[in-house]
Design brief:
37% of the residues lie in helices and 18% in strands. Helix 6 (88-116) runs antiparallel to helix 7 (120-147). The chain is an alpha/beta fold. The longest helix is centred in the middle third of the chain and has 33 residues, at 187-219. The chain has an 11-stranded parallel β-sheet. Strand 1, helix 12 (281-285) and strand 2 (296-300) form a beta-alpha-beta unit. It has 2 domains: 2-38 and 47-236, Butyryl-CoA Dehydrogenase, subunit A, domain 3 (Up-down Bundle); 252-569, Pectate Lyase C-like, CATH 2.160.20.10.
Length: 582
């Protein structure tokens, strides 16, 4: 029975995968199925009538849409545009083109709503939506380009990239809708209607790509067969350069020297006292070449910098180095209570890919009474933070989207002070719970995964969760929890982490009613300290007991292929197990 099911699965994959411009990976995955069915195909009668073409097309569409959560919408969009085509190459193109076109149409409708909106909060939310929709389109276009620009050795990396980028586009769409909370105009409802079909198309394409990746992993075809298939499909593959996707090698000697001595020759020095080339970080960012192909080092001397910094999408490979998280500090106080949406409150926002920050401090000083007030928002892909400080109260660190790695950092706050929907790993970081408002409860994390196919989650590995000295005497007056499910598939893993006695025995707090309690994924593994006792933890369906092998899937090497982009920075990094807490 199992063999028969496996054979049926391989035959289905063969129909989807062969001849596809997207997936040498799928071609690899279905080799066995092709071989098994070749003799049958040769002996069968030719099927060249229109009825046969229609039947083949419908089957191809049905198979392609099988893993999606919105099968009807997937099939309808393909049937309306594919004609009688059963060519997977064309069908995949159509799925992407339909999604990109849908996001573009949503952007145009958003602009029309924005033009007539007068309520200030809604107007600001629509501003954010236009920015986020543009980013969403970029992620889909980048995905299409990447599908044509990989080599055989990089099939797994390509599929990981696609999942991350498409997931990011979905997160941007949801962030747009989140911006309308506590608004009074009908704009929020209008945007829900505008984005409904766009979010369905986005969910479907992520499900299709995720299914391809899982199929490849399950079949585990050897590279020799893969190489032969690559040659067969080479003529069908677009020729697009790798240039804007590669991470250039760091000057290893220079980076080692910096980590050992603190000395590295920067491209520009920022100093408030006038001893550098410029006096502000924003001035330094103007000197970064657009779509920069090499690390551009900005040294920010000790001082408190009162400015709002935005590392825009076209500013790639920026390296920002300070004199210490408590010495070089960027600070602001934008906040929700004063009329600014959470997304816009960030003191520092990072959109550019391959951003690295070393010994920098990021702060939002608005205080607990101002509620949501972000110190740092990160959505640039493959961002790395080393020995940095992020200080605030509610919503301190917005790990918004894409891949992020934090090492030896300190993050302080009160409510949901690490939140977002990135693939984020925190190694050897210290989470400091600060004194909240009198009636507030404190929650360390609020992860925002809304789709079951998204690869995102927060992983805390080898760090500690403790009380701020000012809060320590009162740490039992305000309850403190590890996490609560911001979205329905919220995912957070704590491993090898010290948890002090301020953590409530239940460990986890509901967000609203039963939202996400059975669909979230919360796990603890090999933690210690008085707050790590799991015997009285909440009994939700989504709270898991995991084995060491399962925990290993959430280490950087396996979770987001950290060896490909973290090692190159020369920053300390444990790819898998945590052997020590030093």
């Amino acid at each position: 029975m199992a063999d028969r099911q496996a054979a049926q699965r391989i035959r289905r994959l063969a129909i989807i995968g062969v001849s596809s411009f997207l997936l040498v990976a799928m071609a690899v995955a279905v080799t066995v199925g092709v071989s098994m069915n070749q003799s049958d195909s040769e002996s069968s009668q030719p099927k060249d009538n229109n009825k046969s073409h229609v039947s083949d097309s419908m089957k191809a569409v049905t198979d392609l849409c099988h893993p999606t959560d919105y099968k009807k919408e997937c099939e309808d969009s393909l049937k309306s545009e594919a004609g009688n085509s059963s060519d997977p190459k064309q069908l995949i193109k159509i799925v992407f083109n339909v999604t990109i076109r849908s996001v573009g149409e949503s952007l145009q409708k958003t602009r029309l709503i924005h033009e007539i909106e007068i309520e200030p909060r809604s107007k600001m939310a629509l501003d954010s939506c236009m920015h986020l929709m543009a980013l969403s389109i970029d992620e889909f276009r980048k995905s299409v380009q990447n599908m044509g620009s990989f080599d055989l050795a990089g099939v797994d990396d390509m599929l990981m990239n696609l999942k991350v980028w498409i997931s990011g586009a979905i997160t941007y769409q949801q962030t747009c809708l989140d911006g309308f909370q506590n608004t009074t105009s009908p704009a929020g409802k209008q945007m829900q209607d505008v984005l409904k079909l766009t979010m369905i198309h986005s969910s479907n394409i992520l499900a299709i790509i995720n299914d391809f990746a899982n199929s490849l992993a399950q079949l585990n075809i050897k590279s020799s067969t893969s190489r032969r298939l690559l040659e067969d499909f080479e003529s069908d593959r677009p020729v697009l350069g790798h240039g804007d996707l590669d991470i250039p090698l760091w000057a290893e000697v220079g980076m080692r020297r910096f980590l050992a001595t603190g000395k590295l020759k920067p491209h520009v020095v920022v100093a408030k006292d006038g001893t550098g080339k410029v006096r502000s970080i924003n001035e330094a960012l103007k000197m970064v070449p657009e779509n920069n192909a090499k690390p551009f080092v900005i040294y920010v001397k000790e001082g408190v910098y009162h400015e709002y910094v935005h590392v825009m999408k076209n500013l790639t490979r920026v390296v920002m180095i300070g004199d210490g998280g408590d010495k070089t500090r960027v600070t602001g106080n934008r906040n929700f209570v004063d009329g600014i949406g959470t997304f816009r409150t960030a003191t520092v926002a990072v959109d550019g890919d391959f951003f690295v920050a070393i010994k920098m401090g990021f702060e939002n000083s608005a205080g607990p009474e101002k509620h949501q007030a972000v110190a740092l928002r990160v959505q640039g892909d493959m961002a790395v933070f080393y020995r940095c400080a992020m200080d605030g109260y509610q919503d301190t660190l917005y790990a918004h989207a894409m891949r992020q790695f934090y090492r030896d950092c300190t993050i302080s706050g009160t409510v949901d002070f690490v939140f977002g929907d990135a693939m984020s790993v925190f190694q050897n970081c210290t989470f400091i719970v600060r004194k909240p408002l009198e009636e507030q409860q404190c929650i360390v994390t609020a992860q925002g995964r809304k789709e079951r196919h998204q690869p995102t989650g927060i992983v805390i590995q080898g760090g500690s969760i403790v009380a701020d000295p000012n809060f320590y005497p009162d740490r039992f007056k305000n309850k403190v929890y590890l996490a609560r499910p911001w979205k329905i598939y919220s995912r957070t893993i704590f491993m090898d982490t010290f948890m002090d006695d301020l953590i409530q025995p239940e460990g986890f707090l509901p967000w609203a009613g039963t939202l996400g309690l059975d669909t979230c994924y919360y796990a603890e593994h090999s933690n210690d300290g008085p707050g790590s006792d799991k015997s009285k933890r909440a009994k939700w369906g989504g709270i898991k007991n995991i084995t060491p092998q399962q925990a290993n899937t959430y280490t950087p090497l396996n979770f987001f292929k950290g060896d490909k982009w973290i090692k190159i920075t020369r920053i300390p990094y444990n790819p898998s197990s945590w052997n020590s807490k030093h």
